[in-house]
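tool_call: predict_structure(chain=1)
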Amino acid sequence: MKFVKRVGRKLFKPRDVIVGYENPELVETIFLKTVNHKPSSHAWPLVVGAKTVLDFGGGAGLHYKLACRQSQDIRWAVVETPAMVRRARELATDRLMFFDRIEEAADWLGGVDLVHSNGAIQYVPDPLETVKALCSVRPAMLAWHRVPISDQIRHEVQTSYLSDNGPGESVASKEKLVRYERTWISEQAFIGAHDGFRLTEQSSDPMERGTQQFKFARHVRAE
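tool_result:
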């Protein structure tokens, strides 16, 4: 089926194009796919022991659905675009909230055990400044997935299919292309933006070619 799908896409490429992550149709697609998605019950070691998580670019709360399967008491703050926040707020509870500002998310959590981000930092206007802002809330740990790393900072326009955005099966009645700007980030600059933190893990990310995953831990000052 995957082969048939790839061939079909090459032969019948959609004509309609969506631009940017604020597009209402893209937001609605991600929202509905997240609501309908039933995640696996596999363990997620990263969140074991974490009580408060700031999920940067967490969409409509997919990662929270994964985390609370093993940690039902975890508190989760998603930081997203204003459009996604408006749409996803109906899913908010006393343990899951949505914000469009990092500082407000951190204030609600009252202390951040983990900053988590999966394939999001490359889509903000200034990735390095955003990294610094996330470091400024002083989490115990930061975990990054699917970060496009290059020798130097460079920009491109990325194109995907609407049905590929969000988890699980497509809910779109008509396939469209989605275009958004993506930044390839200098490895040295990315690591250097984590002032006050030490790099504990770095490797190629198996989920997306050309990207890497990182973990950072906050420096503990000696008394």
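agent: The two ends are 60 Å apart (CA to CA). Proceeding to next step.
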